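ingest -> validate -> predict -> emit
validate: passed (alphabet ok, no gaps, 835 aa)
predict: started
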Amino acid sequence: MPTSTRLCGAIRRALIAGGFAAFAVSPAFAQNAISAADDTGRDASPTQLDAVVVTGRAGTGVRSKAETSYSITGIDEERLRLQAPTSVTESLKSVPGFWVEASGGEASGNVRARGIPVDGFGSITLLDDGMPVQHDPALGYLNGDQAFRLDETTERIEVVRGGPSSIFYSNAPAGAVNFIPRQPGDSAEGVFKYTIGDYGLHRADFWYGTPIGQDWKLSLGGYYRQDDGVRDPGFTANDGGQLRLNLVRELEGGSLSFDVKHMDDKVMLYLGVPMRTDEDGEIRAVPGFDGHHGTLAGPETERIGMLMADGSRYDFDNSEGTHVKRDQYTFKFEKDFDGWLLRDSLRYNVTETQRNGMFPNVLQSAQSFITANAALLAQYPGATGLQLRYVTTPDQVYDTASQNGNGLIVIGGLRGVTAPVNELMNDARVSRRFELGTQSHDVSLGYYYAKVDQDFDRYSSTVLLDAQDNARLLDLVAVDADGNPLATISDGGIWRYGYEWENGSGRSTTHAFYLSDEWQVNDKLRIDGGLRWEKVDMEGWVEGRRQVNLGTAPTSQIWTGTGQFLHYDQGFDKLGWTVGGNWQFDDYSGLFARWTSTFRLPNLGSFITNATAKPIIQTMDLGEVGYKYTHQKFDLYATAFFTQYDNVGYSNYVFDADTGASTQQQLYADTRTLGLELEGTFYPLDWFDVSFTATVQDPQYRGLRFTDSGEVLRDYDGNQLIRVPKNSLRVVPGFNLLGDRLRLQLAYERQGERYVDTANSVRLPSYDVFNFSGRYAFNDQWSLFAYVDNLGNSLGLTEGNPRAGEVASGDAGANTFIARPLLGRAYRLAVMYRF
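emit:
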């Protein structure tokens, strides 16, 4: 077989399978590799085929994955299309060391990296073309994934796990995810893709790139979609899209680009559903509820005017879901000045977020709720009993024994959060390569600046609901001995107005300086090091709160503002460092090692609802040793890692059904995790390949001891970290048939058991899930894609009920409880045209 044929076969398999070597080979690059192979009469070096890594470094030269001294996973264009993730979080499922929760919908996901027990995106940062999507991706109810959507303008993803991510980026102690956009070429080209789904999905994606004149190039792309949601709330769940325009000018020794992106998109926030443990020990949805496709949100809780203390109404509109309106402007400049490479990236964001959701706070039997409120009868002369009745059909009495087959009710929270954010970020760096005999130093010095302005308002009320799909509103009614209603205690299903109220504002300014050096000791050994000093100053105000009694049970404890403001003005700074080395044994294998001492500074979210908060700097040490092997038939990357996380702060919120209030405990703990990450791809035949990732780890709390309000010592030292599995596995076998026109693959995932709380009192069982995808290429232009998500309709639980307490859950020992399972089986079909 000719060398070029063998090489093209390897490239083809990598691009079709999306193997974990993350090959991203341009036609020109491939041709150069083929020519080199033909010239030498042997196969080209495997390192020539590795994708060029642009994330987690700042040198002048190029660096392939095989040559990096840290863990990195690449997800190329074809692999993205075959996986077809429905959210940012879902796109990270194939990254070892990451535990992802994407069951909440297209935004507001959770990622826990290398055993760090931080919600949302508090341990990693999201980058769009190398610049942060949001300076802090965990900014108090504002996850970074709310402000970013995947579409055909994204070419590939690079994920740095640990390593130097915290040297080059703020708020990235455990990693950085870089969504790299598609760039226009020397001729006009484009993509159009239309997707439909069995849940009312209609989505159009497009991208077009073309040269303009002699020096400029333009690209334009985006998407629009609308659907009812896999868990149909009875109204449109997801609606909106985005548009992106990019202009690039090639300069002598550099480039200049302007990028504008506008997003107006709203997505449903899926929350927990009523579950129970059956007699056979299996966890299923309660009778009368579809655990695969059901949601408590429904038409009766879609839009409610919630009374406020001043008599006005807060318009709670759950059809808004998480509604983000965002304008992003980016300017990038790169120029080589006689060996000195200057790069500057400027980004300005204006983001308006309205985040509405129907949160299930408490699940209990209807009879226990009536019994607990029996004292209310004394307020209504002649009343001898309490009943629950439907708001829309007040003559219908709720059967406390067997309504909906379960006799359960939910005390839900209608929560509305308004959080506009303006951000200005700039990252400037200068790099120079110095030759010292047979050695070299590639040195970079950078300065990062970020200014963030955030406002925050929250208002919430509790409602009484039955436990069924699209739950209906209930009223508590006082009745006489004959069952005749004498008074309605609740108000149109509202149990308590204003159980949450916040009003705050803040501004932060961040300055960071970083220095890195890539020291090439010899042909086989390179040593990398870096430092980052960062300082953040924050100031703002939080309005004080008071309770108002407007004379009825639902209006007796409405939180509102005092008109007085508590101010805060705080500053924090810290120095972090990293050192690593890469020893390339030969063209096919190498070894790397790295140690990083890093930190995470407090942010505006630390103060936005509490001006007197006393946050502390979270510090951590991360170590890793990795082995890499790549050849034409097999690629393997194995990394052993260690994570010591100090002073991880978290709040324990517990909802009290009797008072209608959420109480907060602020706690700190250390964690320690030892683990092994594996990723690889095996190409035994031209028509078959299999890729895999696996994580085995021992995530533990260290020194987590405290005395609770009952003066009882709680000792959770050595417990497994909250919602972090010890074992996870993903295997993707694929078949290339009909001359590679047909690609079929089945992704299998196994997630080990986790715990809802730090006390490890509520277990989330291990689960398995299958996802099918296929692609048929009619020709070079037209392709058809098919997807079946959650093929086996797995009811795997990703989280319990955080509102029952995440330190020691109130659901401990309960037969019925709130939990959030995977989204049920769904089908999608897409047609794509390339030109």
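The radius of gyration is 28 Å.
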